[in-house]
Specification:
The protein is α+β, with helices and mostly antiparallel strands. The protein contains 5 helices and 5 strands; from the N terminus they run H-H-E-E-H-E-H-H-E-E.
Amino acid sequence: MEPEELLNDNNDKKKISPLQSLETDLRLYSESIREIAVEIMVEGLTTYPIFVAHQHEVALGEMILNKDDLNTEWTIHASTMEEFTEKGIIKKELQQRFIDTYKNPHEFMCVFVIVPEGANFVFFPYGKE
């Protein structure tokens, strides 16, 4: 055993980003998420569906894909721009900016990724049909 291992000094070893596992899970979930996005829009719930990706408990949206049930790394909740605005995640005065940057929901899923360091929106392309 090396002294560095005893000190738990692994600075030279690259940490694997949790976003790599998110990309894997989003590819796996892609068709299911697309179907739910279309259903949300057809039902008139919103024109701007948002999917929340997390690895811990989150009180936002409705769970649609559970990592424990699916043996994956990320749980996905379905939500809407309206819920995000109502909860203050998207400020009312910035809602138009969100709408302007929102990508075509038939080609991209809007994912709000929550990690311990913070959270951010990502537009991830659906797989080819």
